[in-house]
Design goal:
The complex is a heterodimer of chains A (226) and B (438).
Chain A (H helix, E strand, L loop, with lengths): L1 E5 L3 H13 L3 E5 L2 H10 L4 E5 L7 H10 L5 E6 L4 H9 L4 E4 L4 H15 L7 E3 L2 E4 L4 E4 L2 E3 L3 H12 L5 E2 H9 L9 H16 L7 E4 L3 E4 L4
Parallel strand pairs in A: 1-2, 1-3, 3-4, 4-5
Antiparallel strand pairs in A: 6-7, 7-8, 8-9, 10-12, 11-12
Chain B lengths: L2 H54 L12 E5 L5 E7 L7 E10 L2 E14 L2 E10 L1 H48 L17 H50 L6 H31 L7 E3 L1 H19 L2 E6 L5 E4 L1 H17 L6 E9 L2 E8 L6 H5 L18 H11 L3 E6 L5 E8 L3
Parallel strand pairs in B: 7-9
Antiparallel strand pairs in B: 1-2, 2-5, 3-4, 4-5, 6-8, 9-10, 10-12, 11-12
Classes of the chains: A alpha/beta (226), B alpha+beta (438).
Chain lengths: 226, 438
């Protein structure tokens, strides 16, 4: 997929690019609003990651412009301004998602994937993990046809780990994904550990879960390739 | 009590006082004037009688036969003149009021006593005039005055109320503006139309102050946006770099742990900055208050969120909320945060086997929610700094210790009164008083 990163912090742009390239995205960079505006007019992008705090441009104007030239790119706003109404305004202008800096790169990836699924109307296939089948669309976890009852949080956590399989997710990344930034101050690694413990208990009642690994001192990982 | 009623009441009471004084003094004055008039007439009558005696002598008045006295009353017993022979020689000349019994009827007269000497014989001349009519008039006048005073007081009370009503209407409008004011930005800046200089001054001052506050809020907003940008961007860069390290497969486990530790520290910095910015945003009214929220619903949601962790720790969460009311002009997300902070705080400070009880009740004009834990309780010095920033109470968790400061800011933002009571060793109660909105 074709993606434009609009970010005046070259350092950050490079990190995002390096991460997304590994995920097989074709990335383009624009460090100024003018540069971005030109690139959007000329190229067809599937995604634009847009930093609102550009020195020469109001990022929100860029969305308006893109729409006026008929660009069908999906906009994901990334901003450190954190003003409450930026989010509302951005989404009103047709941005597809909004991420406040600093964000986890895996979170960015999973937002892009979620928008892609919506955009290309892909009904994600059921994923097979060990002896379990996870159906993302219907939010069900099955073991040889039997449904395993999970709480919303447990399912979200499992889904996030499975979608980011082979990657180590830190407790904080998991926490941010599930609780958002709102309860940032109350972040307690305990929350994640308790939910994983309960999740394991429920799954282990059906079959062992060696694929759900605890990475000591770091976090958790789902391994599909054994 | 409203100002207009106070003004009307004061004016009524002052009129009442003046009227009462008038009521007490006036009859006395009238009586004095009347008596003076009568005294003057009595003296005139006395002169007439003396003139008559000079003309025709004393004999026609005094028949020497029996009584040696003369008395004459007019038909209605309004006046009388009497002359009698007396023995004493001292001079008498005074006026007094004395009752006389005439035909079994006692009548009060104003009587002039006057002694005169004719042919070396002393006589006492008495001229009297009935004062019954004066007493009657006094009673009548009293009645009429009372009636008029009541009438005047009632009439002026009505007109006073009407007048102060009209006079104070601009003040009502100004207080109305303040009452409906959701924040300095939404203050009605159209001047209230009035000719009263004080109200114009008040209105103008209020509007100016609101504009000033609004501008300060705007500035603070800009500052928070800038701080946010300046601080979050470097954090974001470091974070992305570290996370990119984390996904590399050629890195040893020992380094991964170091990277994760750095990320943890970075997260503490991030969450600290975020918390401070959150407080600044709340305090400068950057959050919307557009939600109608059921606090009980939010509490249940918070409880569901915390339940797994509490259960894991062996702590029971009890819900004792009966009333399900709604709060207007609220920010649901913030209220969630507020309850979450306090309830989770309780879980952190309570040992296994303890419980957290959330009670919701309707008291006189308020909804009260109490979060009580059976935890360690707080010392006096801890209580004193409970809602201050950066005062950590020896908790061993990952928080920055700013949670209760955020809670306080959210409560203030919503006009919720928050307080805490605690006994060392036997738990802490957090009390949230919501104002009841109609």
């Amino acid at each position: 997929m074709n993606l434009l990163i609009v970010e005046d912090e070259k350092n950050l742009a490079a990190e995002i690019e390096s991460f997304l390239k590994k995920e097989n995205f074709i990335c383009d960079l624009a460090c100024t609003g003018a540069d971005a505006s030109e690139k959007i007019a000329v190229n067809l992008y599937d995604f634009v990651l847009l930093d609102l705090g550009l020195p020469d441009y109001d990022g929100l104007d860029l969305i308006r412009e893109a729409r006026s030239v008929g660009s069908e790119a999906s906009f994901i706003i990334i901003t450190a301004r954190g003003a409450v109404e930026d989010r509302v305004k951005g989404l009103d202008l047709g941005a597809d998602d909004y991420l406040a800096k600093p964000f986890a790169l895996v979170e960015l990836l999973s937002r892009i994937n979620a928008v892609a699924r919506r955009k290309f109307n892909v009904n994600s296939q059921a994923m097979v993990v060990g002896e379990f089948t996870i159906n993302i669309q219907s939010r069900m976890v099955l073991h040889s046809g039997a449904e395993i009852e999970l709480t919303r949080k447990e399912f979200n956590m499992l889904q996030y780990l499975v979608l980011n399989h082979e990657k180590v997710l830190t407790r904080h990344q998991l926490y941010e994904h599930i609780w958002g930034n709102m309860l940032d101050d109350q972040y307690d690694s305990n929350f994640i550990d308790v939910h994983i413990k309960n999740l394991r208990k429920k799954l282990n009642a059906f079959a062992p879960t060696p694929w759900l690994e605890t990475i000591r001192g770091v976090g958790y990982r789902v391994r599909l390739e054994q | 009590m409203k100002l207009k009623f106070k003004l009307a009441l004061f004016s009524m009471l002052s009129k009442l006082a003046v009227s009462l004084l008038f009521l007490i003094i006036l009859p006395y004055i009238i009586e004095r004037i009347n008596l003076r008039q009568i005294d003057y007439e009595l003296i005139r009558k006395r002169e007439q009688v003396i003139d008559l005696i000079v003309q025709i002598g004393i004999e026609p008045f005094i028949s020497s036969d029996t009584t040696d006295a003369f008395g004459s009353y007019n038909i209605l017993k309004e006046e009388f003149v009497s002359i009698e022979r007396i023995n004493q020689t001292e001079v008498v000349n005074h006026i007094d009021v004395s009752p006389r019994l005439i035909d079994d009827e006692e009548i009060n007269y104003r009587v002039l006593h006057y002694s005169l000497l004719i042919d070396d014989q002393p006589y006492l001349l008495e001229v009297g005039k009935s004062i019954e009519s004066i007493l009657l008039a006094k009673r009548n006048i009293n009645r009429v005055i009372v009636f008029f005073i009541i009438l005047i007081i009632v009439l002026t009370l009505i007109t006073d109320l009407q007048f102060t009503n009209i006079l104070l209407k601009p003040l009502d409008k100004i207080t109305g503006k303040l009452k409906n004011n959701a924040g300095p930005g939404s203050f009605d800046k159209i001047p209230v139309s009035t000719t009263t200089a004080d109200f114009i001054q008040l209105d103008r001052t209020l509007t100016d102050q609101m504009i000033q506050i609004e501008e300060l809020f705007k500035k603070e907003k800009e500052i928070t946006v800038n701080i946010s940008h300046e601080l979050m961007t470097p954090i974001s860069i470091i974070r992305s770099k570290l996370e990119n390290l984390l996904v590399r497969e050629d890195i040893e486990d020992a380094i991964i742990i170091k990277v994760e530790e750095s990320l943890k520290t970075l997260h503490r910095l991030q969450s600290l900055v975020n918390s401070l910015l959150t407080i600044a945003r709340i305090e400068s009214s950057q959050y919307l208050k557009n939600d109608i929220v059921s606090p009980v619903e939010v509490i249940l949601e918070v409880m569901a969120e915390i339940e797994p962790v509490a259960e894991d720790k062996g702590i029971t969460l009890l819900n004792n909320c009966s009333d399900d009311s709604f709060v207007q002009h609220a920010n649901r997300e913030l209220l969630f945060s507020m309850f979450f902070n306090v309830i989770y705080n309780g879980v952190k400070n309570t040992d296994s086997g303890g419980s957290i009880t959330i009670t919701g009740e309707v008291l006189d004009g308020i909804y009260r929610f109490t979060v009580s834990d059976t935890g360690h309780g707080l010392t006096k010095s801890q209580m004193a700094t409970l809602f201050s920033r950066f005062k950590r109470h020896e908790s061993k968790t990952d928080g920055t210790g700013i949670g209760l400061a955020i809670t306080k800011a959210i409560a203030d933002f919503h006009g919720i009164k928050i307080s805490a009571t605690s006994k060392e060793g036997s738990g802490t109660n957090f009390i949230f008083d919501f104002k009841k909105t109609s």
